[in-house]
Design a protein that fits this description.
With 811 residues, this protein is an alpha/beta fold. It is built from 25 helices and 27 strands. The strands form 8 sheets. Strands 11-9-10-7-6-15 form a 6-stranded mixed sheet, sandwiched between helices. It has a 4-stranded parallel sheet with strand order 1-24-25-17.
C-alpha cells in the first residue's frame, strides 16, 4: 500500500507565498467595496470613543519613509482601539499653505509669476497643493491606512480658512495680538520672518572678533587710577556684520571687572575671570591690572562706537554670562532678542539698517551700503582694523540658525511684525500648567516642551508671503495707525466661508471693517489692508477648533496627538498655544512622539548621501505589509533604522509568521468546531500547556498595545511562532496530526487548540499585519466578515495553569 495515502497531510488554499504587491490592492479594493471603515464605526458607535487627531503633513511632494512611520503608527492604534470596541474615527489632514508650497510654485512658474495677480498666483498654489493631496492620499491608502479619505481636512478649504481668522479674532479680543518692531529670525533668501519651529541649527564657521569701544570722557571719577588714561571697554562677537547696528555694551551687574593697562599705555576693561584668556589671544604681554571696576559705576556712561560718530551706552543686564567672550556684551537691539529686551528697558531703539534681501541700507554709508550682511564680515573687520579698534580676530565653528526651507543661515532682524504675547494675558503660565496635565510618551517630552514654552519669546505670527491666510487688520491711510478687532475678523470669516481667503484680496477693505470705523489716532476713515499672512503653524495649530470641535464624530481635547519628536517645537507647540490661549485647556490628553528614519549605520537619510529608500520601491518589491512590519518592529522612541539588510531580515520574520499560520490552517481542513471541539478537561496535557502559553501571549500583547509598545508585540508574536510553536509545539504535534485516525480524540484535541491559537494569533496581529490577518481570517473555520470587525482576544484565566506551565517549562 502507499502509506502516504494513510496520512492526514495538511490541506489549505491559503498560499505559501504572500505575493503581497499583487494581493494587497485586491484586499484594499474589497475593503472599499464593503465600506469596511464605515462598518467598524457603525458597529462600535454606542461605546466610548477614542480620538486620535491627525497632524497635517505638507502637500508638496510624494511621501517618504518618515510619512510611512507616522501614518502606520496611527493606523495600528486606530485599528487596535477599534478592535477593542471603541469608535475611533480617523480624519486625515493636510497643511496646504505657506512657504514650502509657494517655493515649489515659484520654481514651476519662473518668470510667469511677475505677470500674475495675487489671486491668480494663489489659485496656482491651490491647484498645486490639491495635486499633492490627491497623490499622497493614494500613497497613504496603499499602506493600508484606514480613515475618512473622501472627506479629509485641508487648511485651504473655505471653512477651515474662515475658522483660522475666527481664532485670530479670539486672540485679538483677549488683547494678545500686537504689531511691534522686534528682532525676529529672518531669511534673506525667502524674504520672510521665521518662527522658532522654522529654524534648524547646523554648524557654521564664523569670524570672531574682539573690538575696543573707547570711553568719551575721562574715567578718573570711576577710579582714580584711570585718570588721564585712554580707556576702552572690549566686546567679543561672532557676527561682525552687526557692529554697525551697535548702540550699547552690556555688563553683568554682579560680576567683577578689572582695568588692564597694556604695554602701550592703553587701558582695557574686561571681566576679571576672562581677561587673561582674552589678552593672551590678543598677543598682549607685559600688561598689568590697574584696579578693580564696579560695573554699576559704569552704568549709563557713554563709550564711542568704533565705526561711527555716535555713543554706545554702558548697560547692566542679567543675560550677560562669563562662559565666553569678555563679559562685556556687544548690544544691537535690532539684531537679537536679549539685546532688544535690554534696549527696551533702557529706552534704546531697535535699530536694524538691513533690508528684506539681507543687505545693508544706505544708513551705514560706504563701503558697506548695499552689501549682503552675511558676506560683509571681512569688510567690517577691515574697517575696524583701519580705525585701530580691532583688538584681535579668529575663527569659530559653532551651532547657528538656518532656514528650514532653503537651508541658508538666517539673521536676526528688527522689522514690524505681528505677535501673540506670551505674558500679557498669561499664556505662558497657563500653557506650562496644562503641560503637566498631559501624558507625554516618552516621558522626556514633558520637560522638552516645558523648556521651550518657558524660554520662547512672543510668537511672531506674520509672514511676508502671498499663499496663506491674511492677517485681518487695517492701517490708517493717513497716519498708519493699526486697526484690528474680533468684529473685523468675524466679518472676514463670513466671507471666507463661501469665497475663501481670496476674498481679502478681491473685496474692498470697507467690506471687512465694522460700520463707522474711524482711526483712533487721527479720526480718518480711509484704511488700507494688512498685506502679511499668518504663520502656517497658526493654520495647523487651530485644527482642534476647525476639525476636532467641528466634526460630529470627533471631540476636543483629543485622546492622542502622535507626530515626530520635532513637533515639540512645531505642531504640538502651536496647538497648545492656540488652544490654551482661547480655551484655557490643552487640545490633547496624551502626546506620543517617534524618532526619525536613519540608515542601517545610524546616518540621517538624504538624497545627497544616496541612502534614501522610497516607500514606493519597497511596496512594489515586497509589499506594504513589510513596511508596516518594519514600523512595528523598531522602537520608535529612538531614531528608526532601515536598510536592505533590515528589510531582508523582516522578510524572513514575516515568512515565519505566515508559514506557521499556514501550517495550522492546513491541519484544520477537516475540523468543524461545532462538532469536533474537545472539552478543556479532556485535552492532552501538552495541548493545555499550549493554551497556557497562548493566553500569556495575549496578556503580554494586550499590555504592550495599551502602552503603545509595538516593537514588543512584534518580538512576542515572532518568538511565539518561531520558538513556542514551530520549534516546540507544532513539531511535536506532527505525529499526532498526521498519523492518528482523522477523528481520534488525540487529533481533535490538537485541532481544538490549533483553532484557538490561529484565531487569537490572527486577531493579535491584525492591527499591524492588516492585510495578512485579513487573508488568514477567511481560512479559519467558522469565521465570517473581516478580522477588523472582530475584537482583540481577551485573556482566559481559566486556561492558565501555573503548575502545569512550570512542569512543562522544565521539560
Amino acid at each position: 500500500m502507499d502509506y502516504k495515502d494513510t496520512l492526514n497531510l495538511p490541506k489549505t488554499d491559503f498560499p505559501m507565498r504572500g505575493n503581497l504587491p499583487k494581493r494587497e490592492p485586491e484586499i484594499l479594493a474589497q475593503w472599499e467595496e464593503d465600506k469596511l471603515y464605515e462598518q467598524i464605526l457603525e458597529q462600535n458607535k454606542d461605546n466610548t470613543p477614542f480620538i486620535l487627531h491627525d497632524g497635517p503633513p505638507y502637500a508638496n511632494g510624494n511621501i517618504h519613509l518618515g510619512h510611512a512611520i507616522n501614518k502606520v503608527l496611527k493606523d495600528i492604534i486606530i485599528r487596535m482601539r477599534s478592535m477593542e470596541g471603541r469608535p475611533s474615527p480617523y480624519v486625515p489632514g493636510w497643511d496646504c499653505h505657506g512657504l514650502p508650497i509657494e517655493h515649489q510654485v515659484d520654481k514651476e512658474l519662473g518668470k510667469k509669476k511677475r505677470d500674475m495677480s495675487t489671486a491668480e498666483f494663489r489659485s496656482y498654489c491651490r491647484e498645486y497643493a490639491q495635486k499633492y493631496v490627491d497623490i499622497q492620499r493614494d500613497e497613504f491608502k496603499r499602506l493600508g491606512i484606514m480613515g475618512q479619505w473622501e472627506d479629509p481636512y485641508l487648511t485651504m478649504t473655505f471653512g477651515y480658512e474662515a475658522q483660522i481668522v475666527r481664532e485670530l479674532g479670539r486672540f485679538m479680543d483677549a488683547g494678545s495680538v500686537y504689531l511691534g518692531l522686534k528682532p525676529v529670525y529672518w531669511c534673506s533668501r525667502c524674504r520672510t520672518a521665521l518662527a522658532e519651529a522654522e529654524v534648524e541649527y547646523a554648524d557654521k564657521t564664523s569670524s570672531s572678533i574682539y573690538v575696543k569701544f573707547p570711553f568719551a570722557d575721562d574715567l578718573g571719577k570711576v577710579a582714580p587710577q584711570l585718570a588721564g588714561k585712554k580707556v576702552s571697554v572690549v566686546i567679543w562677537t561672532t557676527t561682525p556684520w552687526t557692529i554697525p547696528a551697535n548702540l550699547a555694551v552690556a555688563l553683568g551687574p554682579d560680576f567683577e571687572y578689572g582695568a588692564y593697562e597694556l604695554a602701550s599705555g592703553e587701558v582695557l576693561i574686561l571681566a576679571s575671570r576672562l581677561a587673561p584668556v582674552v589678552l593672551e589671544e590678543a598677543g598682549e604681554e607685559g600688561y598689568k591690572e590697574l584696579c578693580k571696576i564696579d560695573p554699576k559705576a559704569l552704568e549709563n556712561l557713554e563709550a564711542r562706537h568704533p565705526m561711527y560718530e555716535r555713543a554706545s551706552r554702558i548697560l547692566l543686564g542679567d543675560h550677560v554670562t562669563l562662559e565666553a567672550g569678555t563679559g562685556c556684551v556687544h548690544t544691537a537691539p535690532g539684531h537679537g532678542q536679549e539685546d532688544y529686551e535690554i534696549g527696551l528697558k533702557y529706552g534704546i531703539e531697535a535699530y536694524a539698517p538691513v533690508d528684506a534681501a539681507g543687505r545693508f541700507t544706505e544708513e551705514v554709508d560706504e563701503p558697506l551700503a548695499g552689501l549682503k550682511v552675511l558676506d560683509a564680515n571681512p569688510q567690517v573687520i577691515e574697517l575696524l582694523e583701519a580705525s585701530g579698534h580691532l583688538l584681535a580676530q579668529g575663527k569659530l565653528t559653532h551651532s547657528y540658525p538656518h532656514c528650514w526651507r532653503c537651508k541658508r543661515p538666517v539673521i536676526f532682524r528688527s522689522t514690524p511684525q505681528w505677535f501673540i504675547s506670551m505674558d500679557k494675558t498669561g499664556l505662558r503660565k497657563k500653557a506650562l500648567e496644562e503641560i503637566d496635565k498631559v501624558e507625554w510618551i516618552p516621558g522626556w517630552g514633558r520637560e522638552r516642551i516645558k523648556g521651550m514654552i518657558a524660554q520662547r519669546p512672543d510668537w511672531c505670527i506674520s509672514r511676508q508671503r502671498r499663499w496663506g491666510v491674511p492677517i485681518i487688520a487695517a492701517h490708517c491711510a493717513k497716519c498708519n495707525e493699526v486697526y484690528a478687532s474680533k468684529e473685523m475678523a468675524d466679518n472676514a470669516a463670513d466671507y471666507f466661508e463661501t469665497e475663501g481667503a481670496d476674498a481679502w484680496y478681491e473685496r474692498p477693505i470697507e467690506d471687512f471693517l465694522p460700520k463707522g470705523t474711524s482711526c483712533a489716532k487721527c479720526s480718518a476713515t480711509e484704511f488700507e489692508k494688512e498685506t502679511d499672512i499668518l504663520d502656517v503653524w497658526f493654520d495647523s495649530g487651530i485644527s482642534h477648533a476647525a476639525v476636532a470641535e467641528n466634526r460630529p464624530n470627533l471631540t476636543s481635547p483629543a485622546d492622542l496627538y502622535l507626530e515626530g519628536s520635532d513637533q515639540h517645537r512645531g505642531w504640538f507647540h502651536s496647538s497648545l498655544l492656540t488652544s490654551v490661549g482661547t480655551r484655557g485647556v490643552a487640545p490633547y490628553r496624551s502626546v506620543l512622539t517617534h524618532g526619525f528614519v536613519v540608515d542601517g549605520k545610524g546616518k540621517k537619510m538624504s538624497k545627497s548621501f544616496g541612502n534614501v529608500i522610497a516607500p514606493e520601491k519597497v511596496i512594489k518589491r515586497r509589499g506594504a505589509e513589510l513596511l508596516r512590519l518594519w514600523v512595528a518592529s523598531e522602537d520608535y522612541r529612538d531614531d528608526i533604522r532601515v536598510s536592505e539588510e533590515i528589510l531582508k531580515q523582516l522578510e524572513d520574520a514575516y515568512r515565519r509568521i505566515r508559514n506557521t499560520s499556514r501550517f495550522m490552517l492546513g491541519n484544520l481542513s477537516d475540523f468543524e468546531p461545532s462538532e469536533h471541539t474537545v472539552e478543556y478537561s479532556e485535552l492532552w496535557e501538552i495541548d493545555r500547556f499550549a493554551l497556557d502559553l497562548l493566553n500569556r501571549l495575549v496578556d503580554e500583547c494586550r499590555r504592550a498595545y495599551d502602552a503603545y509598545e509595538f516593537h514588543g508585540i512584534f518580538h512576542k508574536l515572532h518568538n511565539f511562532c518561531a520558538v513556542d510553536l514551530s520549534a516546540f509545539y507544532l513539531d511535536i504535534l506532527k505525529d499526532r496530526l498526521y498519523t492518528f485516525p482523522a477523528g481520534s480524540q488525540g487529533r481533535r484535541s490538537a485541532q481544538t487548540v490549533l483553532l484557538q491559537i490561529i484565531d487569537k494569533l490572527t486577531r493579535l496581529m491584525a492591527p499591524v499585519l492588516c492585510f495578512t490577518a485579513e487573508d488568514i481570517w477567511k481560512f479559519i473555520p467558522a469565521t465570517e466578515g473581516s478580522v477588523h470587525l472582530a475584537r482583540l482576544p481577551e485573556v482566559d484565566s481559566a486556561l492558565q495553569d501555573d503548575e502545569l506551565a512550570e512542569r512543562w517549562q522544565k521539560l
